[in-house]
Amino acid sequence: MWLRRSPLERLRSPEETRRIVRPPWLLLAGLIGRRFPKGYLNRYRLLVHRAGLVGRVLPEEIVGLKLLSGFGGVIVGIALHSLVAQELGQGVALLLPFLAAFGGFSFPDFWLRRHIARRRSQIIRALPDFVDLLAATVSAGLSLDAAIDRIVRRFPGPLGEEFQRYLWEVQLGRRRGEALSAMAERIDSDDLRLLASALTQADLFGIPVANVLRAQAEDLRDRRFQQARERARKAPLWMIPAIALFFCPILFLLLFAPLLLRLRASGSLSVFGF
Q: Over the stretch 115-129, which tens digit does the pLDDT of each residue have?
């Protein structure tokens, strides 16, 4: 999927980003990553957008880092193979270079998706308060875009950055519904998709935007409450492995250790060889 570049991306183009003092290994990764097909790089460009790392890291650098870290994993695996071959055996030791290469190749993906999950969680947590503030500002007489512009200046964080990019796209001539839908796709949030759909319909049918925003804020809080209740129902299931692994062995030790010590002191366990 090809993404339109925002003004932030034009301000920090790949050439300008490379002018920033960057480690040599990151420059090497960028040179390697530029050899990959455009379709593969566009997939990582979407992930970079979702992680909020535009201007800080390039998709070419992440792809190049995958190869560099995989090659480094092979070297580490070969070094470990020579150290543990006698203890673990040749068959098991031969797997170490492959496992280390796979771990090194997958680490940039893990790092990127962790950033995406953290940023998405921050956006989802801040969304109900943002929509409430937006509804109050629109009710005061401002248009939707003017209200968003007023709020994002006082609303730092990933959600404010995404709405700032929405305003940039609208100023560049993109339709409001398309810009909202693109923002929802970047964040990959059902809550934002519903909000974008509701605002698009309100703009299409002339429904008061303030009423739509209030209803959306209430729905967001209801969904948040339902999700919290679902997590609370699943909490006992997650406690079972912890109880089985940590609590039960200690309980058995406390119950049966004194009995075993008494039997051993009285010689009753000599029959069993203890």
A: 888 888 888 888 888
Query: Which residue is associated with the tokens 């962790």?
Result: 114
Q: Tokens standing for 10?
A: 């034009």
Beta-carbon contacts of 9 under 8 Å, excluding residues fewer than 6 positions away, are 54, 55
**Residue-wise pLDDT tens digits, 175-228:** 888 888 888 888 877 888 888 888 888 777 777 888 888 888 888 778 777 877
- Closest C-alpha among 52, 88, 11 to residue 188: 52
- Quote the Cα angle for 38-40-45, to 5°: 85
Are 213 and 131 spatial neighbours (Cβ–Cβ below 8 Å)? yes
pTM of the model: 0.67
Give the C-alpha distances (Å, rounded to integers) separating 123 from 112, 178, 206: 17, 20, 28
The type of residue at 128 is P
CA–CA separation, 70 and 54 (whole Å): 24
**What tokens appear for 14 in the block?**
């790949």
Domain boundaries, given as residue ranges, for the chain: 7-120, 122-224
Which of 124, 119, 111, 121 minimizes the C-alpha distance to 44?
A: 111
Rounded to whole angstroms, the Cα distance separating 151 from 133 reads 8
Angle of helix 95-139 relative to helix 209-242, nearest 10 degrees, comes to 150
Residue 221, class by beta-carbon neighbours within 10 Å (0-12 exposed, 13-18 middle, 19+ buried)?
A: middle
Structure tokens at 197: 């759909």
Contact 1, 42 (CB under 8 A): yes
